[in-house]
TrEMBL record:
Gene name of the record: thrB
Compartment(s) where it occurs, according to its Swiss-Prot or TrEMBL record: Cytoplasm
Record flagged with keyword ATP-binding: yes
Function statement: Catalyzes the ATP-dependent phosphorylation of L-homoserine to L-homoserine phosphate.
Species for this entry: Silvanigrella paludirubra
UniProt-recorded name of the protein: Homoserine kinase
Domain GHMP kinase C-terminal: 207-284
Reaction equation(s) it catalyzes: L-homoserine + ATP = O-phospho-L-homoserine + ADP + H(+)
């Protein structure tokens, strides 16, 4: 018996919501297939589409979460795991989260769905810790739930699914690599009260804009005062590319997760294509090739 599941790539943080906001990029992701074995081993047999991903069961996020769930449920079935990576590693598009989520959804389906999404999310968090040393939930949750999500609490997991914005999103991946752990280590732990107030005001207005589908307010409240300024130095020409997107009419622009990918919001599909091409051209001006995806929140 074999079961496959797809889990989408994700854009975490969405500028103002470090570690708590994220959305699914529905048209790109990873596929994980589990094939029942005759012995009780859990092993990765194949990873296609990416190299440099650990194959060892305890070090690979997808196999580690499968093993943990099997151990916790006292399941002695062995599985051969096949991973088709649609997401480049170190791209800031939630690659490790998508592999863990797809593996867990496949295992849950194999077992006839005994676990809720919240329970699966707890296991996927364990996978994030293995992949990048930190249990952030803002990739796994949108990958699992779809759409745009807000994490009210990650211990225990409590998810707020936000209304679908009637706009398009662009995620552009410059061919660079940023390690999430390094991008987290680049952040200061302390925050001034003044910045905290500015960021809270934007986050609250951003969420309010989503409920009202108010694009003016969304644009006004999309500036990240806390994390983006500290990470900008990790991506060459970040501000130039951001400016080119804003000049082309983007509503919001910032890093996708810890970068190097960027996201932008656009009013409609035509604008999204224009913004994406201008961002791509700007990267190219600096000698950096890139790929982009355009999708909506439906
Ligand atoms: N919130 C996490 C970070 C997402 O920015 O470090 C990583 O994809």
């Amino acid at each position: 018996k074999s079961v496959s599941a797809f889990a989408p790539a994700t854009c975490a943080n969405v500028a103002v919501g470090f570690d708590i906001l994220g959305f699914a990029i529905h048209n790109v992701g990873d596929i994980v297939t589990l094939k029942k074995r005759d012995d009780n081993q859990i092993i990765i047999v194949e990873i296609s589409g990416e190299s440099n991903i650990p194959l060892e069961t305890s070090k690979n996020a997808a196999s580690a979460v499968v093993k943990k769930l099997c151990d916790d449920l006292s399941i002695s079935t062995g599985f051969s795991i096949y991973i088709q990576k649609g997401i480049a590693i170190g791209s800031g598009m939630g690659g490790s989260a998508a592999s863990s989520v797809a593996a867990l959804v496949a295992l849950n389906a194999f077992l006839e769905n005994p676990l809720s999404k919240n329970e699966l999310a707890e296991y996927a968090l364990f996978g994030e810790e293995i992949a990048c040393g930190h249990k952030h939930a803002d990739n796994i949750v949108p990958s699992l739930f779809g759409g745009m999500t807000l994490i009210q609490s990650s211990n225990p997991i409590n998810v707020v699914t936000l209304p679908s914005l009637e706009i398009y999103n662009i995620v552009i991946h410059p061919h660079l690599r940023v390690n999430t752990k390094d991008a987290r280590d680049a952040l200061q732990n302390d925050l001034s009260l003044k910045l905290h107030v500015k960021q809270c005001a934007n986050l609250a207005s951003f969420i309010s804009a989503i409920y009202k589908n108010d694009l003016e307010l969304l644009k006004k409240s999309s500036e990240d005062y806390v994390v983006e300024p500290q990470r900008a130095k990790l991506i060459p020409n970040f501000y130039e590319v951001k400016q080119s997107a804003m000049d082309s009419g983007a509503i919001s622009v910032s890093f996708s997760g810890s970068g190097p990918s960027l996201f932008a919001f656009a009013e409609n599909e035509f604008m999204a294509n224009k913004i994406a091409k201008n961002m791509q051209d700007k990267f190219k001006e600096y000698g950096i090739e890139s790929d982009f995806w355009i999708s909506n929140f439906k």
